[in-house]
Amino acid sequence: MPHPIMLFKKPLKPTDITKRLAIRTKSLESLPHLNGGHAVRLKVLYEGRAWPMVCSTRKQGYKKPVLSNGWIPFVRQNHLKVGDVVTLYKEGDEAGLQYRIEVDRATRVPSPNGNLGVPTPYKTKKKRGFKLI
């Protein structure tokens, strides 16, 4: 099986956990073809559950791809936070191409009053993964 190809790595921002996951335009060519449209449905498997999502682009002008419908329920149910890092990989084998996302949880740095403070996206404590099929 060929080695996975990393398409992008991104620390999550507030918009990524409240509205949609913005994807690098450069990665669009490695995602499923939109076949002349501006959106494609994806099934995302994570811990035995299929998560339907939509990868879409703007209809005119700058494409700006995003994972939208289905992304926010996934974020909420799996407790993703600002500063967590998602990495998207493209993998290929005899059965075809698939996409895999790993989530690295950001370490929350305690503030002087003992509360968990600002996440530090470069220190991670737990990896999780799911695949786009």
Automatic annotation (TrEMBL):
It comes from Rubroshorea leprosula. The keyword Transport does not apply. Transmembrane segments: none annotated. GO terms for cellular component: nucleus. This is TF-B3 domain-containing protein. Its main location: nucleus. Keywords: DNA-binding, Nucleus, Transcription, Transcription regulation. Residues 40-107 form the TF-B3 domain. InterPro entries: B3_DNA-bd, DNA-bd_pseudobarrel_sf. Gene3D superfamilies: DNA-binding pseudobarrel domain. It holds the Pfam family B3. It is found in: Nucleus. It comes from the Eukaryota. GO terms for molecular function: DNA binding.
